[in-house]
Design brief:
413 residues; alpha+beta; conserved putative lor/sdh protein from methanococcus maripaludis s2 fold; Elongation Factor Tu (Ef-tu), domain 3; OB fold (Dihydrolipoamide Acetyltransferase, E2P); 3 domains; seven-stranded antiparallel sheet; 7 helices; elongated; MdtA-like_C; MFP_Cation_Efflux; transmembrane transporter activity; HH_CzcB-like; transport
Length: 413
């Protein structure tokens, strides 16, 4: 009897096990694996009806791969209102003319004739007239420096010039009255006249800007103080430079080009340059720039570079003397697709642009870059004529793509 009862219990146990295995359909169902699949899957939970109460968990019919494929679209959604607020702008790509580019470095210099130097008219000790600082505006004839010769062994140069002038004048007038009567020779009178004229010129030159405090040195031109060549209390001799004044109306751009590009120098027509203090790109065509000359030999100071010089109007905030990055524009190339720098984004050394598919849809596109003229870049592949590309606000679209990639929430079984 016990044996029959034991066999009955075992039969019921096996029957219940089989029913459980076939009813839920969980054969080969790994919950750990499914958990990871759901965390990495971008589910559209608004469109998918997850009624867990009525869910019979028929996982043989639930294909997680199809859901993932449907959720991970290449399209980036950015509503027009948000795009406009973020400053996103796009343009249709059209082939155009693009110039071959030679990248190099160089310097911005003051043009000849637009710079002058105030020099010492007498020997003396320097004291500045008011507050003279580099960059300040000055007008022609404005006092810059006072040179004092008080308590010096040679005495006051203005006083000495006055005495010499008065003595030579008396001697000249005396001889002038006697030369007619042949009392003095014509030769002696001519020497006296020469001494008088020299003394007069010298005295008038130093007396013009003389005062009780000393001799004033004035600005020779209107412009800006470029540099102070002396400091307060320095002793200077006659003719020594004191203050450099620049008008900054015309500037030179000198590019130092490697010898290997010498054969291309005759094809150079213009240039763009980028300053280090504001990272702004200036185009010579917008500054009335023109090519002056290019060197016929490399520099003799140990550098194997050929100078190329341009002249342009200083319409912006360009500082003479600054070193700049230069993009020399050579022979033109027809039917080239190019995009501005603002259209590009970089990720781990690769460059991307964003194509606008429709009113609110965008797509990330890998591109291959060619020549770079500082303002725009040649596109070798990835974009074709007729594509609408985001030219401003590309990083805003990139941020929107990152936002779209974040799932609304994750669910686990």
């Amino acid at each position: 009897m016990k044996k029959i009862l034991f066999m009955g219990v075992m039969g019921l146990f096996l029957l219940g096990s089989c029913n459980s295995k076939s009813g839920d359909g969980h054969e080969g169902h790994n919950h750990e694996t499914e958990k990871h699949e759901h965390e990495g899957c971008e589910h559209d939970h608004e469109s998918e009806d997850h009624n867990h109460e009525g869910d019979d968990h028929d996982h043989d019919g639930h294909d997680h791969g199809e859901v993932a494929a449907a959720g991970h679209s290449d399209e980036i959604i950015l509503p027009p209102a948000k795009a406009q607020a973020a400053g996103v702008k796009s343009n249709v790509v059209e082939p155009g003319i693009f110039h071959q580019v030679i990248k190099t470095s160089g310097q911005v210099m003051a043009a000849q004739g637009d710079e002058s130097v105030a020099v010492a008219t007498v020997a003396g000790v320097v004291s500045f007239r008011g507050k003279i600082i580099e960059g300040m505006s000055v007008s022609k004839g404005a006092p810059l420096v006072i040179l004092s010769s008080k308590n010096m062994a040679d005495g006051d140069p203005v006083e000495r010039a006055r005495i010499a002038y008065e003595v030579s004048k008396k001697e000249y007038e005396r001889m002038k009255a006697l030369v007619g009567n042949k009392i003095v020779s014509e030769k002696d009178f001519a020497q006296a006249e020469q001494a008088y004229e020299n003394a007069r010129i010298s005295y008038e030159a130093v007396a013009k800007n003389s005062s009780a405090s000393g001799q004033a040195v004035v600005s020779p031109i209107s412009g800006y103080v470029k540099s102070l060549l002396v400091k307060e209390g320095d002793y200077v001799a006659v003719g020594q430079p004191l203050v450099s004044i620049t008008q900054n109306r015309k500037l030179f751009l000198r590019a130092d080009v490697s010898e290997k590009y010498y054969q291309y120098l005759r094809t150079i027509g213009s240039a763009n340059f980028c300053t280090p203090y504001n990272n702004k790109v200036y185009a010579l065509k917008d500054l009335d720039g023109r090519l002056l000359s290019y060197g016929k030999a490399s520099g003799g100071d140990g550098g194997y570079y050929v100078p190329v010089t341009f002249e342009f109007d200083n319409k912006g905030d360009i500082i003479p003397g600054s070193f700049v990055k230069i993009f020399l524009l050579s022979s033109p190339i027809e039917n080239v697709i190019s995009l501005p720098h603002s259209a590009l984004t970089e990720e781990q050394g690769s460059f991307f642009v964003y194509l606008q598919l429709d009113e609110e849809g965008y797509k990330k596109q890998l591109v291959t870059l060619g020549a770079d003229n500082g303002e725009s870049v040649q596109i070798l592949s990835g974009v074709k004529a007729g594509d609408r590309v985001v030219t401003e606000g590309a990083y805003q679209v990139k941020l929107a793509s990152a936002t779209n990639a974040i799932p609304a929430h994750s669910h686990e079984h």
